[in-house]
Amino acid sequence: MKVKSIKNKINEIPMASMSDIAFLLIIFFIISMSFLYRQGIQLSLPKKDTTPVIVQLKNILILKLDKNGVLYEQNKITTFNKIKTIKKTAAIIKVEKTCRYKYLVSLIENLQKNNITKISLKKI
To answer: Which position has the higher pLDDT, 61 or 12?
Structure first.
């Protein structure tokens, strides 16, 4: 009788099933995660045929925003919190062309908190 020698087999984990499990987990986490939505600034643009809004000059706040986010009110440096918004109903913001968008957004948000909703933007 002949005795056959059994070679030692190396046990391997099949990698195809591991990649399937990894992709299933990725799909599960993508589907089950909650997406965060940021609410942007609420702007209502005038319609094409509306008449222009007439505001007296004494009720207009004129601001200048430079490229570094420095805010000027009547040629004096100020901050967003120290803007004199008392009895103002409208604002004109003169923005430098290279100003970062985040500075303008925070300025508009601050004006809206102070009930100034009529805002005009001018590029300088």
So the answer is: 61
* Radius of gyration in angstroms for the set of CA atoms belonging to the chain, rounded to a whole number: 31
Which two structure tokens, joined as six digits, stand for 93?
């913001």
Tens-place pLDDT, residues 91-123: 999 999 898 888 888 888 888 888 888 888 888
| Mean predicted lDDT score pLDDT of the chain | 81
- What CA–CA distances, in Å, run from 27 to 19, 23, 31, 93? 12, 6, 6, 47
The end-to-end CA distance of the chain, in Å, is 102
Contact indicator for 40, 50 with CB cutoff of 8 Å = no
Distance CA 77, CA 28 (A): 52
- Counting Cα atoms < 13 Å in the Cβ hemisphere of 12 gives 6
Separation CA 90–CA 59 (nearest Å): 6
